[in-house]
Amino acid sequence: MKATHNPPTTAPVTPADLLRMAALYLRRHGWHQGTYYNNLFPTDFPTPPACAVGAIGMACAGHRADHFYTLDIDTQITFRQTVGVFTTYLDDHEPICAIDDDGFLIDEHTSPYSWNDDPARTAEQVITALESAADEWDRLHMQGGENR
């Protein structure tokens, strides 16, 4: 290594990190159902209560993200990957089996939107699921503090 070479001083942010940040956001600023962010707050309010996916958007973008497609491409990719990790966790641990009138499965995957908006859902369940999804991602992808 040359004396002028500066090695990286921080590890890359993982989906697990972002899921934990989303859980922390909900603990600090409140949980919401029905839309990404509570519409009782003006759009320029920096930290409105959010749904699970809205909180993931805040963690990924660092600001309110009403529509993921308005984010820059790198943030869009990070957002979609993190929501995908959360969806996979919900599929494995809290599946919602929606059946149509003919007895066929409507959705192959558990939607984090409908899961969040279930009238019986609580803020603590959402926060716990985000943290558990992060723990599972770490278990599957990290070894000795480094990505596998």
Automatic annotation (TrEMBL):
**Pfam families, alphabetically?**
DUF6197
What protein name applies here? SUKH-3 immunity protein
